[in-house]
């Protein structure tokens, strides 16, 4: 608070209400704060009771002011995870505004923020942030904006919802991405129709590209002939054994007939093993508090839309006659051929658009379990608990400072050095710590599309049968320090005293970070310090 605080008091719910010269403000236990109301004259709070503020003015006269606690009680209910109070506040108050929406977004509750907005553009942004495809699709249809469809395609592609991706690409007329989508999903039938569409649009480049993807030589020759590229068309036809077309083209070339490569090899695109007919399966998670209440009240109808209204059924044959599964297609998917509806739809004034999922919010015991929309016999998915990393095991298993340095826990390493050796200043250790830590792991690439993976070498890998026995490999050995000592002796003999002092100092700093295995090694380490 930049302005001086005049007075303050705690209310019954644990919120600190205080005053400045011009405002009554609140402060929550998590650090959130805000303005409750403005003041004409400064007051001094004596007690808070419900909506009443008991205070004194500058003439020391008792006064009683009323405040609206809705905002800070709503935030306090979110902090304390009292979701029944949150829902009650949403339904019974007019707590709206960009500040509340921004607060919910900042605190990670975009699903709750969807309750407060009816503006489709804002709803689309919130649904996009929380990954709610259904509400995002509903808002995109209402807005019918190209940028919204492009964003919807991106998030749907991340979730593997190919039907919505297809619909979005069709709405934005992004035919290049649509053709590539058909290619990677093995939908050769629709890819063939895309080629016909490109011909109608006079998109010669797209038509030839799709013909390449399909391995359609006849179509490529046809496109080259239409472009007046007769030499290329002749080479294409003659190389692929289309004798009749090659002869026709040869007659139109006069004497300028290009040579044919006798060693040319036939190259065809690989035939898809199977066609991706359905969306990627998603894990079923238990319904959160808000979603359970929302579904129970049937406040909104889940809308997925129908991509078949824009994607015609194709009956063209493909050139590749190998065992490719092109039947079915996305037009057979019930998810997009029928609109999902709910009977007895109840529209609550403050409940519009509440059809989202909040997996992180715990289910409330007062809300009955809601069955999944999809038939599922495998039950709900329970996320596994996060295990310990190898560096974390090193810090728990060892009391050697070097093991903590190798794990990246410099703070505990410095604490151990202070307790064991009495070191107070660690400025000289910064570079040594970084050098040791850089040796603690190895990086390797599994697949080109994945980030680097890390492996952690162990010094006792033969005996490390359980995580409790994991100890990191140490690159710093006693023999190395002995070698440094000999180098320092030579520098001293040659009169290079400054360089020798640097090496001697590095030896002294490094000895406490050694790992020794025998009593003889301990004695030699002590001798290094004495020397």
Automatic annotation (TrEMBL):
Comp. bias regions, Low complexity: 300-311
Localization annotation: Cytoplasm; Golgi apparatus membrane
A family per Pfam: COPI_C
Membrane topology: Peripheral membrane protein
Any GO BP annotation: vesicle-mediated transport
Residue ranges occupied by any COPA/B second beta-propeller domain in the UniProt entry: 1-57
Signal peptide residues on this chain, from the entry's feature table: none
Single Gene Ontology MF annotation: structural molecule activity
Highest taxon, organism lineage: Eukaryota
Biased segments, Basic and acidic residues type: 338-350
Chain residue ranges for the region called Disordered: 299-388
Domain COPA/B TPR: 84-241
Domain annotation Coatomer alpha subunit C-terminal: ranges: 287-531
Protein name: Uncharacterized protein
């Amino acid at each position: 608070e930049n302005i001086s605080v005049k007075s303050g008091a705690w209310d019954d719910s644990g919120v600190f209400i205080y005053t400045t010269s011009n405002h009554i403000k609140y402060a929550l236990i998590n650090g959130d704060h805000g303005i409750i109301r403005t003041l004409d004259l400064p007051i001094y709070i004596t007690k808070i009771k419900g909506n009443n503020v008991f205070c004194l003015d500058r003439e020391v006269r008792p006064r009683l002011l009323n405040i609206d606690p809705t905002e800070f009680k709503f935030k306090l209910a979110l902090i304390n995870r009292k979701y029944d109070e949150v829902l009650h506040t949403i339904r019974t108050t007019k707590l709206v505004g960009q500040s509340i929406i921004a607060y919910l977004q900042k605190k990670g509750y975009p699903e709750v923020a969807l309750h407060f907005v009816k503006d489709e553009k804002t709803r689309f942004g919130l649904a996009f942030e929380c990954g709610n495809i259904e509400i995002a699709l509903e808002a995109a249809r209402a807005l019918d904006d190209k940028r919204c469809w492009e964003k919807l395609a991106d998030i749907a592609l991340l979730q593997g919802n190919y039907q919505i991706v297809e619909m979005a690409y069709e709405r934005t007329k992004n035919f290049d991405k649509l053709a590539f989508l058909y290619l990677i999903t093995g939908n050769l039938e629709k890819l063939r129709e895309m080629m016909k569409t490109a011909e109608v649009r006079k998109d010669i480049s797209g038509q030839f590209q799709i013909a390449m993807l399909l391995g359609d030589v006849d179509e490529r020759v046809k496109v080259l002939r239409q472009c007046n590229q007769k030499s290329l068309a002749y080479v294409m036809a003659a190389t692929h054994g289309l004798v009749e077309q090659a002869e026709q083209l040869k007659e139109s070339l006069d004497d300028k007939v290009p040579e044919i490569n006798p060693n040319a090899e036939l190259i065809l695109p690989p035939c898809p093993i199977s066609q991706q007919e359905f969306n990627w399966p998603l894990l079923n998670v238990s319904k959160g508090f808000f979603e359970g209440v929302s579904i129970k009240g049937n406040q909104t109808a889940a809308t997925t839309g129908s991509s078949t209204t824009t994607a015609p059924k194709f009956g063209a044959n493909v050139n590749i006659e190998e065992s490719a599964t092109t039947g079915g297609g996305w037009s057979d998917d019930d998810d997009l051929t029928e609109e999902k509806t709910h009977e007895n739809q109840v529209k609550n004034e403050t409940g519009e658009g509440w059809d989202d999922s909040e997996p992180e919010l715990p289910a409330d015991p007062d809300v009955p379990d809601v069955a999944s929309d999809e038939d599922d016999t495998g039950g709900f998915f329970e996320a596994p608990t996060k295990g310990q990393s190898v560096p974390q095991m090193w810090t728990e298993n060892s009391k050697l400072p070097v093991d903590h340095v190798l794990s990246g826990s410099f703070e505990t390493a410095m604490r151990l050095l202070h307790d064991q050796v009495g070191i107070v200043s660690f400025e000289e250790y910064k570079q040594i710590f970084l050098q040791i830590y850089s040796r603690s792991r190895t990086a390797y690439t599994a697949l080109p599309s994945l980030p680097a993976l890390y492996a952690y070498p162990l010094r006792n890998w033969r005996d490390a049968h359980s995580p409790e026995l994991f100890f990191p490999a140490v690159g710093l050995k006693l023999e190395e320090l002995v070698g440094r000592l000999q180098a320092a002796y030579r520098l001293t003999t040659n009169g290079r005293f400054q360089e020798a002092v640097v090496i001697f100092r590095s030896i002294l700093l490094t000895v406490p970070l050694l790992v020794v295995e025998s009593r003889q090694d301990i004695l030699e380490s002590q001798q290094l310090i004495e020397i």
